[in-house]
Design goal:
The chain is α/β, with parallel strands linked by helices. About 35% of the residues lie in helices and about 15% in strands. It starts with 6 loop residues before the first helix and ends with a helix. The relative contact order is 0.20.
C-alpha cells in the first residue's frame, strides 16, 4: 500500500483556500449539505477557470485531494501541493502510482477531486475522459457533481483564465450518484457505459446549476 496523502495537510489546504478565495473573490456555495459527511466521495468538477480546484478545495465541507497534472508541481509549488495532500499525476501515460494512491485514498474513506474533462476548457462536461468512471466503478464511491460558475466572459480579468477579482463565483454541489450499474464489472464496456451515465448526470447538474444561479 502506498503512503496516503495527508488528510491533515488537505485540511490545512482547505483553510488556506477559504482565506484566498474569500479574499480575492465572492464565493457563493450551494448544496454543500448534499456531500456525504463520511465515507469515500469523488468530486467531479467542471474546469473553465484556473481557480476551480482551489475554490472547491476551500469551500467544500470536507478536506479534498485533487488529482493535479504534474506540470503544476514546479518550484516551491511541488512541496507545497504535496504537503496539502494533493496528488501528482502524469497525464501522458498510465500513472500507476497516482492511480494506486487515489484508490487507497478512497478505500480509506477520503474525498478525491477530479476534473473529468482532463484539462481547462469550456467547463461544460462535453468531453469526458474514462478516468473518473474507472475510479468510481473500481472504488464504488459515489460521485458528487460540482459546478463552478464564474464570470470568465466578462471584461476585467487581470489574468487570463481567472474571473475578475471580487466577482461572484458560484460553487454548486449536486446529489451523489453511483456511476456503476451495481454489477461490479470493470470491463471496457462497463466503463464506457459508466462514462455515458456520468456525462448525463454531470450535464444535467450543470444545466440545473446555471438555472439556479442565473449563469
Amino acid at each position: 500500500m502506498t503512503e496516503l496523502p495527508s488528510v491533515r495537510g488537505a485540511e490545512v489546504g482547505r483553510r488556506i483556500g477559504v482565506g484566498l478565495m474569500y479574499g480575492l473573490w465572492k464565493p457563493r456555495v450551494l448544496g454543500a449539505w448534499r456531500v456525504p459527511a463520511t465515507g469515500p466521495v469523488i468530486f467531479a468538477v467542471n474546469h473553465s477557470h484556473n481557480i476551480d480546484g482551489p475554490m472547491v478545495m476551500g469551500v467544500a465541507p470536507r478536506p479534498t485531494h485533487f488529482l493535479i497534472k504534474k506540470e503544476a508541481f514546479v518550484g516551491p509549488l511541488d512541496p507545497f501541493l504535496t504537503r496539502i495532500g494533493q496528488l501528482k499525476v502524469d497525464r501522458e501515460t498510465t500513472d500507476r502510482t497516482a492511480i494506486t494512491r487515489a484508490l487507497d485514498l478512497l478505500a480509506a474513506g477520503g474525498v478525491l477531486g477530479i476534473f473529468p474533462e482532463g484539462t481547462r476548457g469550456e467547463g461544460d462536461f462535453a468531453s469526458l475522459r474514462a478516468g473518473l468512471a474507472y475510479f468510481a466503478v473500481r472504488s464504488g464511491a459515489p460521485v458528487v457533481p460540482v459546478a463552478v460558475l464564474g464570470s470568465s466572459d466578462r471584461p476585467g480579468r487581470l489574468i487570463k483564465g481567472l474571473p475578475p477579482l471580487r466577482s461572484r463565483v458560484d460553487v454548486v454541489f449536486g446529489n451523489p450518484f453511483d456511476a456503476g450499474d451495481g454489477s461490479g464489472r470493470r470491463t471496457r464496456k462497463a466503463l464506457d457505459e459508466a462514462t455515458e451515465r456520468i456525462q448525463k448526470q454531470l450535464t444535467a447538474h450543470l444545466e440545473n446549476a446555471r438555472r439556479l444561479t442565473g449563469r
